[in-house]
Structure formats: C-alpha cells, structure tokens
Design a protein that fits this description.
Length: 251
C-alpha cells in the first residue's frame, strides 16, 4: 500500500475514534490511527492495549501492543486477563483490528492461508483478536483493499464477525448487539446492515470509484444509491501522522 493510500486509511480511521470512548487498539495501522486521533479529533480517547495498557498518553508511538510505550502515562497497567475481563464486562466500546482476509460478514483471518492442516502460509495468529471481536461492542476493521484479501469465505475464522448472517453471533453464544460496525479500507467504507449483516458500501475514498472497488473485491456487495466521498486528510492531520510515523521509523 502506498504512503498516500495508508494516510487516507489512517486518517479516516482516526475520525471514527471520537470523544472519551474506550477503544481496543490492535497492532499496526490502528496504532497510527489512535495516535492521530489523540492529537487531533479525540484528545480524551481512552486507548486499551492487549497486554494491559489502559489510557496511555501515546506521546510516543508503540511498536507492539506489549511494548513499554503502550503503558507510558497510562491510567492503569493491567495484565492480559484483566483487560479481557474489562471487555467482557462491556466497558470497551470499540475494537480496531486488521487481518489478512475478510469475508462479507466481517469474519477475519489472521491464522493460515489455505487448509488449516496443510496451509500455503502460516500467519501470526489470533493474539487477542478473537477476544476483541467477541467481547467489545463494535469492531472496526482496517484493511488494505485487495481482491486476494476480500474473499467470499475466509480460510479460517480467527475473529468472528457476523459468522454466516443475522442471528449467527447470538446462536454462537456471543452478546447480542455486538459485532462489526465498519469495514474501512484505502478505497472505501462499508457498514453491515441488520437485515443482511453483509458488507455494504456507504462511502468512497478520494479518487476511488465503485467500479474500481468491485474489481478489487472477491465477493458481491451492495452499495447505497449515492455513496459519499470521505474527506481527504487535512494538512494538520498529514503533518501529525507523518511525524508519528517518523518517530516510529527512528525508534
């Protein structure tokens, strides 16, 4: 993904982080989005990291979810079990996650490509992603938009979305009212209507077209009649984002 495409994705994700909400932050691009949100639209955002950092200042960008910077000037330093208990109690609103594959119901795969017992590639695995997707109220998925990643059926369900449709999460024992909220890419923004729980395109990134998004998506999807265009990053957002990314590269 080009730097410009990454900036579109991260800036749009940061704008989904609002107010004093509690947000579970995954590895990689979600960290950049959280750092940008803290410096611009959501200074009171409470970021939560898998290994126990709750409410760090994010003055320096963490390189991993368990790295010391995810605890700097934090409200609390919990353990893994304590953080997941906090999510299970319903005290974490959103979880920002990525993945290697996503399907139309928002199921994510970060485990294997190909059959589980004889895969073509082994991926990093779940980490806390299954817990986040199972326990927080809303999941926001951040991904590069490539046809090989957007598939009709993921090779392995690492993180549950809406599984196979309406009511499936509840039948699996997950809390009603939870699940994917948005699927955000460098090309488009999708929601998951209650009637189908399949990804529906609601907005395009600057420069993207509906035809181009369909060409890079390996499953059929509906779109709202007149998708809006997401605003591009402002000069302030770009300056903050590039500074944060520069700090990470220099660390």
């Amino acid at each position: 993904m080009s730097a410009q495409a990454e900036e579109l994705l991260v800036a749009a994700a940061a704008r989904l982080m609002t107010g004093r909400s509690t947000v579970f932050i995954g590895t990689g691009l979600p960290m950049l989005a959280a750092a940008l949100a803290k410096r611009t639209c959501a200074p009171e955002l409470v970021c939560v990291f898998e290994f126990g950092g709750i409410g760090p200042a994010l003055e320096r960008l963490p390189r991993a979810v368990g790295e010391s910077r995810s605890f700097e000037r934090a409200w609390a330093a919990e353990g893994l079990a304590g953080v997941m208990e906090t999510a299970q109690r319903g005290l974490i609103m959103d979880g920002f996650l990525g993945g290697a594959q996503v399907d139309p119901y928002g199921n994510l795969n970060t485990t294997v490509i190909g059959p589980h017992d004889a895969p073509r590639a082994r991926l990093p695995g779940a980490g806390g992603a299954n817990d986040v997707g199972s326990l927080v109220w809303r999941t926001v998925i951040m991904m590069r938009h490539e046809r090989r990643r957007f598939v009709e059926k993921v090779d392995f369900v690492t993180t549950p979305g809406y599984l196979d449709g309406p009511g499936a999460r509840e039948r699996a024992g997950l809390c009603p009212g939870t699940g994917p909220y948005r699927l955000l890419t460098d090309l488009a923004l999708f929601d998951f209507p209650a009637e189908t729980r399949r990804a529906r395109l609601i907005a395009l990134q600057p420069g993207a077209t509906l035809e181009g998004v369909r060409a890079e998506t390996g499953f059929a999807f509906e779109a709202v009649p007149e998708p809006e265009t997401l605003p591009p990053p402002t000069p302030e957002e770009l300056a903050v984002l590039r500074a944060a990314a520069g700090m990470e590269a220099a660390a």
